[in-house]
Amino acid sequence: MKKYRVTTNTLATISLFESPEALYLWSQFKAPGNPKGAVAVELRVGDYVDVEWMGCEFIQESADVYKCLNMVRADVAKRADNEAGHVVSSFIGWVSSDTLTLCEGEHENVTVRLLNES
Question: What is the DSSP letter of 29?
Answer without folding.
Answer: S
